[in-house]
Fold each of these.
Amino acid sequence: MNHLSLIIQREYLTKVRNKSFLIMTILSPLIMIALITVVVYLSQMNNNKQRTISVLDESGFVTNAFKSTEKTTYNILTGVTLENAKTIVEEQGDYGLLHINKIENFDLVDGSVQFYSEDSPSLSVISSLENKIEKELTNQNMAQKGIDIETINASKIKIDISQENFSGVKSSKIDSVVKLAFGGAAGYLLFMFIIIYGNMIMRSVIEEKTSRIIEVIISSVKPVQLMLGKIIGTSLAGITQFVIWIILGGVLLTVVSAIFGIDFAQAQTPQQELMRQAMENPDASMKVQSLFTAFYNLPLANLVIAFLLFFISGYLLYSSLYAAIGAAVDNETDTQQFMLPILMPLILAVYVGMFTVIEDPHGTVSTIFSFIPFTSPVVMLMRIPFGVPIWQQIVSLLLLIGTFLLTVWFAAKIYRVGILMYGKKPTYKELIKWIKY
Amino acid sequence: MSNLLEVHNVSKKFGDFTALNNVSITVPRGSIFGLLGPNGAGKTTLIRVINQITMPDHGHVLLDGEALKNHHIRDIGYLPEERGLYKSMKVGEQALYLAQLKGMQKSEAKKRLKMWFERLEIGDWWNKKIQELSKGMAQKIQFVVTVLHEPKLLIFDEPFSGFDPINANLIKDEILRLRDEGATVIFSTHRMESVEELCDHIALIHKSNKVLDGNLMDVKRQYKTNTFQIGIKPNNSTLEQELASKFSVTPAEFKTLGDDLKLNIKLSQDESANDLLSYLTNQGQISHFVEVIPSANDIFIQTVKNN
């Protein structure tokens, strides 16, 4: 058996057998799911809470707009003054009091509606009240001005722009959402992977230094072999952990939602809001269908291949740097000053991906960052679902691989010298000198 | 080929610092070769060059008459001064892993490991983790791992540190046995009494330069001062003054049964031991007459001070 595979095997087995690794593997999805469950459960409880809102309508225009629902009971007050009404509401412990002044003229209604409450009211309550009053007053205003509401409703026209590119591929808003989800997930996955397992590689290099086994090992194998073996072995352990997380997480999620009857889809995040807006028109069966079409509209083959290539090269690029840092220092506390230059481009990539790619996947900023080797893996992975010309992908990948080879060479140099250096924390200047040894 | 290892004019610089300056040594086959020198002299760098951990800037190394190549890794067993083992790995597993890295087959490595573990009476450690063992115990494992693949050349850097006297003796005997079985040993240490005890050849490195090398006895001959240690019961009390006027005399320290006169007498180049002895026989009862042989320790200190 050759050295590299021996080293990979050892790294993998030690990682996988490690107790804290095992505990993390099992516990992380449990904690994650528990947290999600609690959050969703609480927000549902919050939504389900019964509210009583008292309404004192002195104008008499909008009383009809307030029909009690399951969640909100409207308590219409009549024949009391505002001061009395406030006392009543406070005594009853209602959520709040909505007060509408006398309205003489519809042009002057602004400022004649107030909401009184003990605590500041939630945004959604206020906006729902505003909606109701607005609608009611608009209707009455129209009636007063002699405009027929029926005619207006009948003459409304709804437009859904159908999108198609020059080569004839159709897409829709929902496509963009699906693309965003795919690109975002891929980019974010890479980001997480680099941070978690890059650190693990670094720690394992430091461990070899502090246990002083390193000189014994490198009298048998080349430092580059040891470094690559460590990176590959740790990554394989990482992939194992990730796969277990996904499977375990999926199973747990299904079980929990079945037992507690919590609908995770109801937990509304901004992305889901976007999704909901995009899918507003079609009915339920159309929704599923359009999701599938959107999925098939993705450049799937391109996506998978590009994902593998960019993920692997991007990960190797960063993990070789982590290995070099591990070799340069004696203990984990000394790593801080070297971590920043690694984390900066990584975080920058994620921000560019989140803000710029969503806004305009083919804009100048996104395009430039998808070529810069340290940000390209994340940004390009986010862009690809939107269709990136093959030449751009190839150029970006070549740049990335070139840089990756350069960093591995550079990291190997530092590694070779660093693993035999003890005691002093090196400066950047010394690291540069090591390369020349 | 009578020399197993030849190092020719090796130089190595780290930035502005010269770690080795044109160093050459030859290690005869089947010898125990002492590589000596003060701290920071360049011994470890030289050993690393031989192990292909560090590449020299100039010069070359021949092992068995062949320039060092990758496959020579198998022919060398190296016990570094900075040594350790993976703490959370089991003893047996770890030894097997390290043996396989030296190119051994797993089954063969297992067989030999069992044999060694039995010989050193550590068989029941196989499934223990290194962190459960004491330092001396871990050192034993390291020794076994170093010699397991039966290399032609063994390099020990301070092999006895961390051992109690009993185990140090055990390891010393094993080193001698390996030598008798045909291995050549390079032995780097600061403990001069073990140099005295074990080494046939020595080389002394000081401030990146080799300042001395050769067969230990030849070196001693080279450093001898023609000094003799005598014990005598003088016939008359003026002997000491007489001797002092004839030779260069210093008081000596050793044990005798009587209250003899004890002196170190340094002879000049043209005087022989016999001249001194025949002179002394007429002056009293001689109880002690020994040539003072310079110890490795003396040679070390003298050479380092003079350079």
Amino acid sequence: MKCLVIIPAYNEEKNIVRVVDELTEHYSQYDYVIINDGSGDDTAKVCREHKYEMIDLPVNLGLAGAFQTGLKYAYIKKYDCAVQFDADGQHRPEYIHGMMEKIQEGYDIVIGSRFVEEKKPKNLRMLGSFLISTAMRMTTGCKIKDPTSGMRMFSKKMIREFALGLNYGPEPDTISFLLKQGATITEVQANMEERIEGESYLNLGRSVNYMLRMLVSILFIQNFRKRRGK
Amino acid sequence: MGMILRLLLILASLSTTLYILKRIRHAKLQIEYAIFWLLFAGILLVISIFPNLMIMLTRAVGMQSPINCVFLIVIFTLMIKLFMQTIEHSQLEDKLKQLTQRLAIEEKLRLEQQDEMKKLADAMKYPEEK
């Protein structure tokens, strides 16, 4: 089973070497590709110097567009599964194996979740996660413990659907939509690191905006969508 | 606010919502862009069903008639939206320009490289082959 690790990178010159070197040194059984999302810093240069596998986007597309580029590549190269992997070192490659086992069992999407075995802490940062979780349970009846985890693995069928569809961003609202459409989704415990270098993309304004978008989308819009090719 | 105006507002917000949802259903509109219109239509709907909210707000800001307040809010909201769209539009155009330029330049560089390879291959041939 061939797995592609997709690493969207936006201004990650300080982190990318550490992340990719760990993958190539200890986890060479997985192929990887970096999607440089029009970074303003030297991410592309660093990747070229180290001869990393990279797709260099000439303009910034945002996470959804960058990740979809990776899935299109995975689709063209006929990979059996693909996993979204952060360039800042948050995600740990040792969990990829467990996630692949679930794909082999027949699941469509596997989420690398922080809260399968551990309890979700009750703080402001987790309030968003809690609200999205609740909204998803209300509309789909399924409990996803870590809907905002960025570490998600997709089966071959999902790669095709995500690569070619509109409104298939790697976000909880898409997961909610697919759950409602009968896709099988499961979670695997995956602990995450705190980011070491660089700033988090989320600030208060962006978080509120994101939450509003996700809640309107999950509670309302997703009920009216038609699935691609059906 | 008169009954006819309220009915008009209700009709307008419902048809906006329906149209936006239809576009999403057929994968012709990105969800990010739909959120604004759905919220806008939702607020209009609330205002027209519960005009008392508007009357209270009108008194609070010291305006004469509630309908003026509705117009003011709608105009302000649309102006901000238009302003943001101008900025997005400009960014989009710049991205498109950069993309087109990069594509064209890369094609030119590729052709130049091909030419050079051909010349090199020619130069390496024996004289009698030329």
